[in-house]
Structure formats: C-alpha cells, structure tokens
Amino acid sequence: MASSAIKHVEDHHRHSSSARDLLGGCCNLVNEHGPVTIEHVLLVLREIKDERESRFWGLFNFFDASNAGYLDFVQIKVGLSAMQISKDYKYVKELLRVCDANRDGRVDYQEFRRYMDDKELELYRIFQSIYVEHNGCIL
C-alpha cells in the first residue's frame, strides 16, 4: 500500500513537472493580490479538482491501510513512519488534534480534506509573501 501511494504522488509530480516545462518553467500563474482561494492553488499546481481529489484520496488511503474509513493515532503513526517522517508521539498527537474537528479520536475523510485544504492555502500564502518579483522565481 505504501509503495502505491508513493508511486501515485511521484506520477503526479512527474506530470506537474512536464506541465511546467511546457509553460516555459513558470512557477506561478497567479499575479493578483487579495484573498487566496483553492482555485488559486489549483491554477498554480496545474491541477483540476478531480486530480486534486484523487491525490487527497490516495494520501488518505495510504494512511488508512486497514480500510477503516478513518484515521486514528496508530494509523497516523504508522503512515508517518512509512513516509520516513518522525513518528514522535507529540507530532502524531498534534496532527490528530488539528485534524479531528469533532473530537471523536478519529479523522474521517472530510476532516482530512479540510486539513489538507487549509495546509495548501497556508503554504500558498507563504509562497506569495516571498514571491515579490512575480517573475517566475523566488530569489
């Protein structure tokens, strides 16, 4: 299961890289200021909503190796370990705390998706704050 999720992410990255090559290496197509939306993120990633949904489902299913339909402490710990990310108790507990909106000790897909939306928007905002020249480079 881990290798198929990793392959899915690698295939997506390869597809996105070739799209960037076709567009002359431009790394950001959005040059406007104001509120950032998921549509901005989709445009920058050159991803349609179905591709994004597939990417999120792939990652969720990677963590949900037992097909329980939710993620719990153990599944998050095992998933992070498989990705060679620290499985330290505090990181797993913090991820569970942030994702588990209804505080039932589990993260369902909708909670996971909201978390991923929020993180991608946060990363895009950070990118925009350092992307001051709007010339395709963040130097």
Automatic annotation (TrEMBL):
UniProt cross-references to SMART domains, sorted A to Z: EFh
Protein's name in the database: EF-hand domain-containing protein
UniProt GO molecular function: calcium ion binding
Ranges where the EF-hand domain occurs: 87-122
Annotated InterPro entries: EF-hand-dom_pair, EF_Hand_1_Ca_BS, EF_hand_dom
Keywords linked to the UniProt accession: Calcium
